[in-house]
Amino acid sequence: MHKSETSGEHDWAALAADIKRWASELGFDAAMIGDAELGPQAQRNLDAWLAAGQHGEMDYMAAHGTKRARPAELVPGTRRIISVRMNYRPPAAKDSEAVLNDGSAAFISRYALGRDYHKVLRNRLQSLAERIARQVGPFGYRAFVDSAPVMEVEAATRAGLGWRGKHTLLLSREHGSLFFLGELFTDLPLPIDPPLPQEHCGRCSRCIEVCPTRAIVAPYQVDARRCISYLTIELKGAIPLQLRPLIGNRVYGCDDCQLFCPWNRFAVDSREADFTVRNGLDDISLVELFAWDQATFERRMAGSAIYRIGYERWLRNIAVGLGNAPSSPAILAALQARLDDPSELVREHTSWAWAIHQGRSAAQIPAQAKQTSQPGAPA
Question: Is 282 a catalytic residue?
Answer without folding.
Answer: no
